Amino acid sequence: MLVDRSDSRPLHQQVAQALRKQILDHDLPPGAPLPSEAELSTRFGVARSVVRQAMAALASDGLVIRSQGRPTLVAQPAEYRRLVQRATGLFDQFASRGQDLRTTVLGLRADEPPPAARAFLRTSEALRLERVRLVDGEVLSYVRTWLPAERVPGLRADQLTDASLHRLLTEVYGLRPVRGRRQVRAVAADDALAATLHAGAGDPLLLLEGETTDQHERPLEWFAAWHRADRVVFDIDVSETAAETVRMDTPAPTATPAGADLDRARALLDELRRVLG
């Protein structure tokens, strides 16, 4: 398992990525001790200082626990849960459970929406809102939302820092999100998403796409939210008389360099299938 010295990535990143994959694949289960610095140095063919840098990166990501004079242990994964069939947003769901969800706004600007969003919103004049959501300093998701510009005049990015979009729409614009459709799929992180979510390129992500209408049945938002699959669990309420229907579709495999990671990501949806019986 020697590092590839022809790779443009720094050696410590290669070591960290290899160990991160073992942890996420549960080859190194939660609570298991990692090999010593000396053993990892020999295994990867690098200096101990490189191993220490890799361990620091894994600890920063919350994947391992380091203690002075004790073996480094694989951390128990922190999982955050959201209900995918509720019109309420992530901010309000977390607040109802006493969890402090933080929001960083990456951008808000006028832009032409993609075809699916344009078809739902029935306009090409839209606002593109990009946000990152965090809990306890950990990045959970990156969200891209499209809003019909004429319905939210004067909307500013600073209004949405550490705030709920749905609550603002209700209180400021009198637009209450009521219902819509949601779709979950498994995808592999590209370089841009990996950098934003502090994940590795090719890591599995859960993509939640949705469209929401207001109390007047008018289109209000279209969004795509990429979640770290190692930190977020999607919950679905089911009952014998449930009015809503949740359909699970697995896209046909495609030829892609991240194919193996994508297959691993699709396997994450098995839990949802078991919930649905």
Automatic annotation (TrEMBL):
Keywords: DNA-binding, Transcription, Transcription regulation. Residues 9-77 form the HTH gntR-type domain. Gene3D superfamilies: Chorismate lyase-like, Winged helix-like DNA-binding domain superfamily/Winged helix DNA-binding domain. SMART domains: HTH_GNTR, UTRA. This is GntR family transcriptional regulator. InterPro entries: Bact_HTH_transcr_reg, Chorismate_lyase_/UTRA_dom_sf, Tscrpt_reg_HTH_GntR, UTRA, WH-like_DNA-bd_sf, WH_DNA-bd_sf. The keyword Acyltransferase does not apply. Pfam families: GntR, UTRA. The lineage of its organism: Bacteria, Bacillati, Actinomycetota, Actinomycetes, Pseudonocardiales.
